[in-house]
Prior knowledge:
This protein is α+β, with helices and mostly antiparallel strands.
Amino acid sequence: MTQVDLQRLTKIYPGGENPAVHHLSLTIPDGRVTALLGPSGCGKTTALKMVAGLIKPSAGDILFDGISVLGVPTEKREAVMAFQNHLLFPHMSVSENIGFGLKMRGVDRTAVRQRVADMLALVRLPGLEARRPYQLSGGQQQRVALARALIVEPKVLLLDEPLSNLDAHLRSEMRELILDVQQRFNLTTIFVTHDQEEAVVLADQIALLFEGQLQQYGPPQAFYDRPLSERVARFFGGVNFIPGHKRGEDIQTPLGLFQCPSAPLLDGAVLLTIRPENIQLDSHASGANGAYGRIKSSVYMGTHARFKILAEGNSPQPPVAIEVVTGAAGVNQFAVGQRVRLHLPSEKIWLVPAER
Ligand SMILES: Nc1ncnc2c1ncn2[C@@H]1O[C@H](COP(=O)(O)OP(=O)(O)O)[C@@H](O)[C@H]1O
Ligand SMILES: [Mg+2]
């Protein structure tokens, strides 16, 4: 069990204009799964490599259980990295690949053989020990990479895009394997992904990075329910942003007045946001926190239906485009061109600062 603390961790590559990672501070709890999430190029792999000791930070510190590991070389750091850009040795068999780390540590051959057998069972690959990497499928190669990382009994497991390059079926298999292994060994696991869905299903908490900087850190649900900015909300599929002005509990918008006692304590220019699945559609209801709109388009998605609606208030301002998701039956209930009432429940409304 190891808690990992990143303290204002920064990496500037030689010749790089902007830091690849900038003042990243995070407390990564022990025995849990933490995702570093963000678009390609935002510094995820760089951060992971610094934790593994594969590259040196330009500034800041990395602590394992409160003790700086910056002076500890990679092979003694007890953090191992698997996947992206960590290819298997092509000239070695599966067994040799998996046993490599122990052999380098001078463990005797019988013990290595036994541990390799254990690892093959763990990643469910028995019978393939003599094969070469090119004789394996992509999913099998990932398993070998995982076994090779785990055999040295790390305290911190670092996974770089473990599920990308796998098809849907293999992804869910690999996801289960990772969670299984992580729970069995109580490993502090940090994994990198650009895929928000992957982060949500795998991680206990997510650190979202844009351009090397931390945007938000917390449990997956917080990114849906309490995003800190419009950009964070959009990264998690948020589409509804209504400009408004907040005073006390009242938010004045082009669609009329909305109230949301639970919204954050911002005053002044705000964006009112609400997830499409949290808006209720009705053809005749009235009441507070509502607006009228006309359905512009609808898409039936099998398990649900998605509508684009132009909503308008009493003011002579232009209509506001709003997306609404209903149950699949909604597609029979609401037709394109129909006038509907939208209800935005106050407890589902969230506010982010309006960007200037
Ligand atoms: N060895 C390197 N030398 C110079 N720049 C690099 C190097 N590795 C990565 N970068 C740059 O640092 C930034 C972050 O890269 P990376 O950590 O690989 O992002 P991610 O894993 O989020 O896609 C990118 O702009 C990338 O071009
Ligand atoms: Mg990367």
